[in-house]
Amino acid sequence: MLLRSLWALTRKEVLTLVRDPGALLLALVTPLLLTLIIGAAFAGDTGPTHIPVLLLTQDDSPLAEAFIQTFYDPELAELLAPERVTDEGAARARVAADEAAALVIVPQGYGEALFPQQKLVQEALGLDLYQPDIAQEIEKRPVEQKMRLLTLLNQTSPRPPLELRIYSSPERPVSSFIIQAVARRALETTQIRLHGTRILMEELTRTLPPQVWETQGTLLSERLQQTQEDVTLPIVLESRLPSGRPFRWVDYIASSMAVLFLMFTVTAAGRTLLAERERGTLTRLLLTPTPAWLLLAGKLSGNLLSGLLQMLVLWGATTLIGAWWGPPLLVLLCILILVPCATGVGALIAAWARTPAQAGLSGIAFSLIGAALAGSFLPRENLPETLRYLSLVTPHAWGIELFTALHLGANLRELLPLLAGTLTLGLVYYGLALPGFRRQFS
Amino acid sequence: MRRLLTLIRSEFQLVFSSPAAWIFYLALPLLFTFAIGAGLKGLISPGTAATPRPTVYVTHLPQNEIGLTLRNLLQEQADLQEVDRLPRGKFGLDVPPDLMERLSSGAQVTVTLVLDPQSALTMAVEQAVQVALGRIGGAALVAQLGQAQLQAMASTPDLEQAFFTRVLTRTLAAVEPAPVVIRVTGPEGGTPQASAGPNSAQQASAGQLITWTLISLLGAAEVFVAERLRGTWQRLLLTPTSRLTLLSGKLLGRWLLGLIQIALLMIAGELLAHVGWSRSPLAALLVSLSFALAGVSLGMLLATLLRTRAQASGLVIGLSMALAALGGAWFPLEITPPLFQRLALLFPTTWTMQAYTAILTRGASVRQVLPAIGALLGFSLLYFSLAGWSMQHQSS
Predict the structure, then answer these.
(1) Which residues of chain B neighbour A381 with C-beta distances below 8 Å?
(2) Which residue of A69, A86, A285, B5 has the fewest C-beta atoms within 10 A of its own C-beta?
(3) How far is CA B290 from CA A167, B97, B295, B372, B389, in A?
(4) What ipTM does the predicted assembly reach?
């Protein structure tokens, strides 16, 4: 009998929500829509493609040309859309107007700054180290000239660094960062090859006997020529994620938006209880044989069931559009623990608010403040530590922590502390609501 | 005119009849601006002075030139901490303990970088590690070539090992100081803010301003619907005041409310975070006027289409957030697919966000934001026309 009454009250609360288009709009349509938008925005590889970059060189050395050609590497064809320019003023104007992401300017003296020895060798020995058949040319020279060459190659003259300028559009910071990364890598590669070649030749002449050096020198030069081409470096970087799954915005937003809009739904329960009191229907219900505690339990369990249904529907719907919440059983467990905690806030508001309008406003304010503090719109990880700790008084934070842990591959044992924390917070909310309800129903 | 002013005043009284209005119109937007601004750091200003420094945990950091190179290059972007075991969910670099030996044996070595998937600094950290390993790998490649020469001369393994280590170590040391350095500047001639692009505070200030003001402007729909359902609108129509005056009063009231909210948020953003609203005040004013007009006209269109207050309430919040997200108010559109960027131009929030970003980052003049102002006025005309047509259609 009691159960039947409880079910009737619960069912009535759920039907009230389901039959209200406005409530459904807020509970289901909006979070789904936002998840779709974020999913579309971050579909595929996140990041700009075909970044328009202008290239200007003020130096006519082969090294400057090699640097420019880096931007035309076929591997970067999807990422960059390079264009050579000759008019710096016009190019700067285009970047300032955001028609291009950046202008890369190779300054005069670039080749000499990177490879000052080239000029020394050319002046002393008449050798152009840039020429394609340099190895054969060196081979023809007598030993004394070869030794002189080595001495010149190892001469270094410190000078202030030359600036390779990148003039970037302030409205494209990510594109600018990518262009800087490409430029830096090209510069690094060139410097390593030049220094490495020089040092290697010096070390070999020290280690090998002169007659061996003479015959092996050509072979080495040819081998070093190979380093100018693309070769596989002996160190490979493997980037890995803890769970094996890549981070996807759609996964994060699907669960965080579900939690936020769950809060809107469950905090609205306070308004309906107070509205019933204001209208007088609550008083009439209290006159029935149904005990007061059962009426309250019916209201709260109706709220609980509504929240559960909302979360389950959102989980299913967002999964259909590609979001991944985590292993299904663990997700279900998290939802079963989180929803009662969230409804605790609704109970607290219902217990202490004086009017329906006050309850409604408090619910919306709590939901939104919690969203800001807890990281509903951005990975929580990136918020200041103070905010992260402060937000632990909200179900938003615990919900996001739970689903984030699932995204990172947490198992049940690792989830237990978070589940316990969520449950405890819910008990605190209900505990604080109890005196308020006693006062209301007495 | 007096009637118009009365209507506008009553609109304000209605909104601010509850102190909670101050929470919604000012406190919450500011809170979101601060929180989102803090959270966006690193995502939209990677590798700049504005980027917070993550901690990268490293195992088996070599105590030689390789380790020094790794440390120096990584410390440009992150703080390094040597550990025995990599912590879960944080940036971690797992260096093989026998890295030098394996490189000198000619083997290819894999170094694993464990990413923190939710950190906004992933790109900067990955880039720093790639630069470091690129340098070490390049030096190792050259050293391996020389080692191969020695092997061909039938030298001893100890000699080859020593040779490899010397060439690698000297090459890594020779790269610094670099003879050529990269310098990034922007249209303002190299000020850190301009050269680094919009910082997170600018993105958040403009983005949250658009989001919350749009909620207020679209809220005109809820007001209209409520008046229609209560019957007060019909009663107002019975008064000598013309329909045009009544409509204008309502809309102007909402428009002014939106403008006041924009002004307060701009002032707060400028005073608290110096985001740059004062760089081009006239341009900011004109963009704001046209954005507010577009918002209130869309609210009016919604009012003609919605039947209940609950519908209006739910739709206002949902539509505001959706339009804000689509328009680049929550994340820079730069990182979205090209098709998404093109489709986003169908929304007034996109044009507003582009204009605000141009004002904040490079002090765009009125002439430079004219296309955005024109687009927003076009949207206003479209929404007003549709609203007028809808009202006429319903009354006929």
Answers:
(1) 116, 118-119
(2) A86
(3) 32, 63, 9, 9, 22
(4) 0.79
